[in-house]
Amino acid sequence: MIQAPDLPLWAAIAVGFFVLLGASITLVGALGLLRMGNFYERIHPPTLGTTLGTACILIASMICFSTLHARPMVHEILIAIFVTLTTPITLMLLARAALYRDRIEGSENVPDDRIATAAVDDDGSPT
Q1: Which pTM does this prediction carry?
Q2: Is residue 124 assigned to a domain?
Q3: Domain contains 78
Q4: Whose CB has fewer CB within 10 Å in the chain, the N or C terminal residue?
Q5: Total count of domains within the chain
Q6: Contact assessment for residue 78 and residue 61, using Cβ atoms and an 8 Å cutoff
Q7: Transmembrane stretches, by residue range (predicted)?
């Protein structure tokens, strides 16, 4: 059932490269999850790792199956669209829920609004 011997050398190299690249990017995202301090810092790296890692693995899948079946295989484009749309939406919903919970509980690690107003002085003029 293994179809790897049927792949031409150029396709096998390209598929191997993109699979390793996708796995490496996802690993970096997972390490970023472990490395960051609080929840608000931790939600960003896995999102990037998921999106970029999945994109590389989907490119490898498109190359592999398009070469094996001698016609373009574009099912992976639907998967890429779905992952690209749902991952950032999930990130925003998780962040808003955590921010709401932390503000209600009075937690100390709640990001304050100084970042949004840092470019404006007390009198309302830009700095």
Answers
A1: 0.70
A2: no
A3: yes
A4: N
A5: 1
A6: no
A7: 12-34, 46-68, 74-95
